[in-house]
Amino acid sequence: MELDAIMIQVNNNYDKFLSNFIELSGQLIYLHATLCESLRLYPGLVYNHKSPTEPDILPSGHEVNPNTEIIINMYVMGRMKSIWGENCNEFKPERWITEGGTIKLEPSYKFSVFGSGPRYCLGKQMAFTQMKIIAAVIIHHYNIETVQENYPVLDLSILLRMKNGFKVKIGRRSQN
Ligand code: HEM
């Protein structure tokens, strides 16, 4: 079944689906952790830039003024040992889960893919709900296998894209 068809199926009873899903999505801890980990290594927005409104000195000692453009590179930050530890290059959703089984909340100045401060992304919760709906519907209907030889080639721009996509084999999951 095409993704469009799945979404039509979802849309047919959308209100009920959404209210059930929002209730359930708070419990989809491992999926939430997986999405955070994907965004840590592959942030949708690669970098952001900010300028101070008045002259200031950063904690690093750098002097900045309103003409200074500070580039915050989320792609690089997501792969820094000093921020994420020795295993920073490993895809490890478990790093987002506390011993008590809840999602570990990281400060936005560490996990900056949604920005930080007063212009923080207003759609973060909605983005997680949408990503969870899409992932849950696809995983429910299909088995997905990566095609091993095909590694994504990143297309460097302000938005992170893959040059040739990411090829996978898709098979219908049997519905019992
Ligand atoms: C994974 C998905 C998303 C990512 C990675 C993301 C990331 C970001 C980032 C980095 C910013 C800039 C924050 C800053 O400058 O400090 C931003 C701003 C914003 N985002 Fe998102 N976003 C996502 C999804 C969404 C969605 C689904 C919506 C709306 C439903 C949304 C609405 C906004 C708005 C309105 C702002 C501007 C906030 C302001 O300037 O005050 N975002 N987002």
TrEMBL record:
It comes from the Eukaryota. Heme binds at residue 121. GO terms for biological process: lipid metabolic process. Its cofactor is heme. Coiled coil: none annotated. Keywords: Heme, Iron, Metal-binding, Monooxygenase, Oxidoreductase. The keyword Iron-sulfur does not apply. The keyword Plastid does not apply. Pfam families: p450. InterPro entries: Cyt_P450 (IPR001128), Cyt_P450_CS (IPR017972), Cyt_P450_E_grp-IV (IPR002403), Cyt_P450_sf (IPR036396). Signal peptide: none annotated. One of its GO terms (molecular function) is oxidoreductase activity, acting on paired donors, with incorporation or reduction of molecular oxygen. Belongs to the cytochrome P450 family. This is Cytochrome P450. It comes from Chenopodium quinoa (Quinoa).
